[in-house]
Each structure stands twice: as C-alpha cells, then as structure tokens.
Input
Amino acid sequence: MKFYGYFRSSSAYRCRIAFNLKGVQPETVFVNLREGLQKSDDFRSLNPQGLVPALEVDGNVLSQSLAMIEWLDETNPAPPLLPGTAIERAHIRAFAQIIACEVHPLQNLRVLNYIKQNHGQDQAGADGWCQHWIAEGLAACEAIAAAQSHGGGFVFGDSPSLADICLAPQLFSADRFGLDTAPYGRLNEIRATCEAMPAFKDAHPSRQPDAI
Amino acid sequence: MKFYGYFRSSSAYRCRIAFNLKGVQPETVFVNLREGLQKSDDFRSLNPQGLVPALEVDGNVLSQSLAMIEWLDETNPAPPLLPGTAIERAHIRAFAQIIACEVHPLQNLRVLNYIKQNHGQDQAGADGWCQHWIAEGLAACEAIAAAQSHGGGFVFGDSPSLADICLAPQLFSADRFGLDTAPYGRLNEIRATCEAMPAFKDAHPSRQPDAI
Output
C-alpha cells in the first residue's frame, strides 16, 4: 500500500490520523504541492484529478480522503471510525462533510491561486476569504458539537470518529490562515483531547518528513 | 420523514434521485433559497448550518446530501447505491466526492454572492468562475468514466450508483452556468441513460412543485 501525501494538505492529514488510529502504516510518497508536482504527467497518470492524497492498493488508485478513510474503515473495522446506528453514522458523516464539502474546498491552493490571479486578491484578501468560510463552517460545527450530551471527549462520544479526523486538520488550517478560534469553545476542548493522542500527534504536519 | 429542499439545489436534486431509486417518498417542504429562507431562525433551529437539503427522521435532523444518501442506503439496502467490494465502493464514493467536495461547493449561491460583493465580480465573472471549476471537475470525471470497461450504461456498471446520483445534477448545473459539455462524451452517454429512468426524470428541478 502506497500513500501519496503532502505534509500541509488537510486531506492528507486526515488520512494520516485514520491510518494511525487503525495501526496501518502504508509506504509514504511525498508530493510537493508548492512545486506543482501533483500536476506532473507522472502523478496524473496515477490520479487523473492531479490532487493529493491518493492511495495505491492492490493495483488500484484511490483518491478523495473521505472515500479512502471509509475504505480503510470497511477493511479494518477496529476501532470503528463510524460507530453506532445508521442515524449516528449519518451525524458523523454530516459533520465530516461540513468540513470536507463546505469549508475545505474553498481554502485549497488552486482556489487561492485563482482568486489572486483572476480576482486581483492579495495575500490579505486570500486570508480574509479563507477566514470567512472557515468561520462559517466552524460555527456550524461548534453548534453541533456543543449540543451533544454524551460527556465524552470527542465530537460524538468517548472515541475519535471521522468527525474528529476532519476537525483537527481544519482547526490547524484555521490557525494557519489567521482565524481566531477562541469563539469555538467546545471544538477547542475536543482538539485538546485529540492532540493528546499519539495517532493525532504523529499525524501533525510539523512532524512529517517533508515539512519545511 | 420530512425532506427540506429547493428545486434548483444540486444537493437536494441528488437526494430526490436517491429517494426515487429506493421508492421512498418523504413529505417535502420547500425552502426558498432565493428569498433566503434557509437563513431564517425557524430553519436554523432545525439545521444550524442554514443549508438545504435537510431530512427530519424520527426526531433527528440529518444534513449534508451524501450523509443522507448513505443513511438511506444503509436503512433501505435495495437497490444498492454503493454496490460491490470495498475497493469498488471507494471508487464510487471518490467519484461522488470529486463533484461534492471539489466542484459543487465552489458554485453555490453563498460563494457566488461573496465574489460579487467582495471581489467585484459581475454575473459574467461569476459564470466564468463556475465554468472553470465545473470544467476541471468534469474533466476528471470523464477520465475516470471513460476508463471503465464494464460495458454498462452508468459510471460504474449497469445500475445507477451514488456516482450517477451526483453526476446528473452536476451536468444540469453545467448547463445552467453556460459550460459547453460537448467535450465530455462518456458523461453525456451516461446522462442519457440516467435521464431515461423515471427516478432521475421525476427528480429534475423543472418537475418540482416549487420550480419557477
């Protein structure tokens, strides 16, 4: 199994946490996004979309972090990343998708490049754009997380799920783009719980061999 | 079961197709996005994120179209929307997520409003923005779909999956934003197969009671 990632990619960060939680360690290939290597012919022949992360497994190339993590969860059921009933699983997936479908796509590199090149935005404009969308998404996540009454340390209970796997990298990105995360009290508590676990700690961008 | 949707919302359109394929008919509530009713206190008390679609079921409110469709598929297994092995399911989810996580978030109303208000874009600029991201995503989808050799009429075989459920509404949006879809030969063939099915036909925005 070969994992193509980049230290700072939020979606690669999600996958690293999931692999660590499952105790699965794929061989890792680092694709330098700042140098545009994800758009190289070599990488595109592997993943036509030219995005990391990607996972090569048994001659297949999987892409899209949530699809990869669901595959990992189906093939390595313990510990479950989508525990509970169908309704509980739907809540976990929805929380993950608020981040993966509503926030993260707006802050990624190709979008920031576009608004700089085509909308005349400078770095401050790009940061403001990211802050706006991250704040909107985190407000929804905070409302959901704060409404839970399970008493556990994670979004949906006392063990990390796909929700926490998406949340920790999103909070890292919030810091990176200069958003003040103080208003998200419950999310910060959950973050502290996550960061105390080796699976989350070892997946942090600053601890990857390609970190600069 | 109560479904909150809007005729033109791509993600509500996905859910309608899925309900039709499963033969499940929830009561439908129409939330007028152009009038901003999704931001009303009433609707936000139901779905804090203020987005449609949402699904009220057994006192729970589910949000995020893909999470809702996975819930529907888990609770109503026939016909399966994620058929096959874990690897095959990963490919279906990844295809759906190219649309749901890479394309659709960039073309939705709140983003178009933002670039008009904050980046000085007019309607032509907003359409150009949408066309750019839709073209990039559909090119990836076309490469994946054209590489399949199963001989069936849908993206991944001879029955519709979550991939087709996301594709048909995305092609509808491509038309709406003025993108020429002629380059996507295989996707157009799949679209024709889909549109011949009542489940897809009846879910079309133009056939909804709130269509204007």
